[in-house]
Amino acid sequence: MLIYFHIIVLILLLWAAWSDLRTRLIPNRIPAIGLILFLIAALAGLVPAPLMHLLIFAVVFAICLGLFAASLMGGGDAKLIPVVALWAGPAHIALFLLAMALGGGVIALYMLIRSRMATDTDSMPPTRHDSVPYAVAIAIGGATFTTQPVVNSFGAVLTGLTGYGV
Question: Less CB within 10 Å around the terminal CB: N or C of the chain?
Answer without folding.
Answer: N
